[in-house]
Amino acid sequence: MTAPTPWPRLRRDLVAILRGVRPDEVEAVAGALAEAGFEAIEVPLNSPDPFRSIEGLARRFGAEVLVGAGTVLEPDDVDRLRDAGGRLMVSPNVEAAVLRRAVPLGLVSLPGVFTATEALAALRFGASALKAFPASVLGPAGLAAIRTVLPAGTVMAAVGGVSEADFAAYSAAGFRSFGLGSSLYAPGDPPAAVAAKACAVVAAYDAVFEGGSP
Q1: CA–CA separation, 158 vs 176, rounded Å?
Q2: How many of the other CB atoms lie within 10 Å of CB of 60?
Q3: Positions of E strands within 34-83
Q4: 70-96 pLDDT, tens per residue?
Q5: Dihedral sign, CA of 157, 13, 2, 107?
Q6: Is 42 annotated in the active site?
Q7: Torsions phi, psi for 159 (to 5 deg)
Q8: In the annotation, is 95 catalytic?
Q9: Active-site hit among 118, 131, 164, 197
Q10: Element holding 158 (H helix, E strand)
Q11: Percentage of residues in the chain having pLDDT higher than 70
């Protein structure tokens, strides 16, 4: 039986969520993010022509950035993600067939969970890490309560309604992984605007987490 792919060691555990990005602009936006220090980028599948965007990102940035898809709901989309060169599979829910398809393909998986039941099920199905969603509803205390019943070393990322202003509160509860969407990118944002926001996010992360991981 194939073992799940572990969550990679990133200097900063930050996933940029580019919901609504177009293929003709995604590489410039991703370039701004990579230059700022982001090492993981997600293109949700409800964006325009998402697999084309993922293929372009994987071709240009795949060696240095963990490129993938978000809002992955069907096993067939897992195959399409792999074929496009993506390595990160993010979903808003826990779907056994989706996670079990990702494992033998060697993809890094990040399913969305809201309860301890969902979190434990996701790990049983082979999740690399857990996406606590929407984190703004659970809050740092809620996430910390769920984490007490999870296996030691489980990576849980706070996603949904989270910005750099929340890093300190989550850090105090023992969290250092985040997915950032609307606070980082909105459809149509020019690369310069994304770069400014990305630099602010990285600076805030480094201030709280002492420069990220070596």
Answers
A1: 8
A2: 16
A3: 40-44, 66-70
A4: 999 999 999 999 999 999 999 999 999
A5: positive
A6: yes
A7: -140, 140
A8: no
A9: 131
A10: strand 156-159
A11: 98
